[in-house]
User: What shape does this take?
Amino acid sequence: MPHDRASAGVLSENAEPDFRGAANVAPHALKHPAPASLGFDGQSEAVRQLRDRLDACLPTLDALMLCGEAGSGRTRAARYLWVQSARPGRFVPVIDRLSFEEALADQAGCLFIGEIGLVEPGLQASLLLLLCNKPANERPVVICTSTWTPARLVQDRRMDEALATLLSRHCVTVPAMRERHDDMGALCAVWAEQNGGEAVFHPDCADWLAQQDWPGNFRQIRQLLSHAAQSRAGGVVTASRLAALHRVDTTADAASFQGLLARYLPSMLNLESDIQGSLHARVLAEVERPLFRLVLRATEGNQIRAAALLGINRNTLRKRLQLLGIETGRTRS
Assistant: This one.
């Protein structure tokens, strides 16, 4: 089974992780090893509610949707559910109809479909038939992720209403980084351990991280911490060091967009290894989302002018805005 490294530990097929082990890590204890727990360390209200919602799904785990922003830990939540369910069979990522059929033939225990709104319609149709025609005890568990809610996917014509109805019965939202600032101490401890103890994070790191804006969520933070740990192997990483590395990255990114991609893409390749086949669509969405928002601000929400500035058809822009979940008030000049 491929490993998912999105925000904390690496889970093997037979592992039984402690998802709460680092929940009460005090700042002065950041240098001590913390158990890997798939990114749900901490005691913020957001993560407590997430644990409760996930645990509530376990007794009747069947077909479920995990919604949230990219990098927030949706894949980890899916793995958490599957491991905690203690059901037989493998956790199998599905990217198209072929892998779907292969997983069924292989008697997979759980089918995981990342960003279901971006997959081919044929896969959604096959999934709907499976859910409608076979009772829960005769088919695998199905866990899907999406940046958008089932209702929004139907509205944008990215999902059949019947499938959305089935997935809406159990729909859990995974909180973004901005809702989990209180968890930074515990997460720093986990990530320090994940880097093999190469460096120690000073207590002020958690406070500094909590004060920044992280559009890439935990994926972006982990990338910075990994860079910092490698640059301070055997030493102590302070908040000032993180800030300096962050400024260097920001300056370099401004000077070289290619440099930004060169640093960011390897992280995506590692972290999204469970959903190979949708990487291009994900990278495209990561680039288009801030680009379209910038252009819409510059054109005061005028989609005709925005499309002209981008050099694309207005209908194409409108469809992409809907798919990316970007709201805009104006459509005409």
Q: What stands out?
A: The first helix runs from residue 45 to 57.
